[in-house]
Write a structure and sequence with these properties.
With about 350 residues, this protein is of the alpha/beta class. It is built from 12 helices and 10 strands. The two termini are about 20 Å apart. It binds 5'-O-[(R)-(carboxyoxy)(hydroxy)phosphoryl]adenosine and zinc ion. The site of zinc ion has 6 residues, from helix 4.
Length: about 350
Amino acid sequence: MNILGIDTSCDDTSAAIVADGMRVLANVINSQVKLHYPYGGVVPELASREHIRNIVPVVDAALSQASIEMKDIDAIAVTVGPGLAGALLVGLYYAKALSAANGIPLIAVNHLEGHILSILLEDDHPEFPFVALTVSGGHTSLYHVKALGDYTLMGQTLDDAAGEAFDKIAKVLGLGYPGGAIIEKTARSGQKDIIRFPRAYLSSGSFDFSFSGLKTSVSQFINKWNQDEDMQKKISIADIAASFQEAVFDVLVDKLVDARKQTGVKSMVIAGGVACNNLLRQRLTQRAEKGIKVFYPRPSYCTDNGAMIALAGYYRFMNNEYADMSIDARSRFPITDLKPLAS
Ligand code: KG4
Ligand code: ZN
């Protein structure tokens, strides 16, 4: 059973072939980082145009890497949302065209479900139920994952995503874009306790997040630091990066650990671009109590990729949940709205 998975929700054009819901035969990702670099963030119009240029070669490359042809594909799974509307439309309409021209069933996939299930692409993965934190440039959400298709949203960011905060702070520090990996690298030589930036825990027991206050506080600190040579002698860029990173991870790890305790599950999963961060992985592993396991997908399954979409599509395909040609892209698509996708 070969599923072609396509994702064009943001700035990566990706296509993958996954066999039997577990074996990744190909996972091709065309990153647009260089294109958006001068703007310090994703420019939606440019992203859509770049997806149009790349979608055909990316799907062809996936087929060729997997050494199969379109006639060997059993279903085409495509992200319909959430994401940038113009970007989503490119993948969705190419998937529709392939489906119609080749008589292959079309499966609509929620991008967030892809991130939640991405851990199942790894041999070492948890049994249901587990708690999952999806943390990227577009989302920061905490789920109680009870079974396939049965997800309770426990909390989410009320403003910026954690990855967005990394990107913004890297930009203010003049480190470039995207910020996550650069901040991680810069922070390695810094002292994490030198500046105590605010941690937004919100109300007691809340699993929601907020990073806009932290973003503002760090930006204001950097503005002051830029104008004060004495401060620059005492505090380095690495110190600022390390202290910022610590403030983000304290909250992420605390809330994920608390969510695990509240649900009583035995496994914690982190996924999404920010889950590439080695310090976050370490912190979470250190905090896991005896008998509790921590799982994270490899980096190429953390950042946006077609393999997680093919995998999520596989389960919907097995459940006979096909999409018809009238399906539209949804820039907002809460995971609780998954059911209406079934025809
Ligand atoms: O999942 P992803 O590729 O795209 C979205 O769906 O947003 O995530 C990209 C985000 C960016 O904000 C990037 O700065 C962040 O993930 N990121 C990281 C790291 N690598 C990527 N954040 C922290 N540490 C990293 N090593
Ligand atoms: Zn994503």
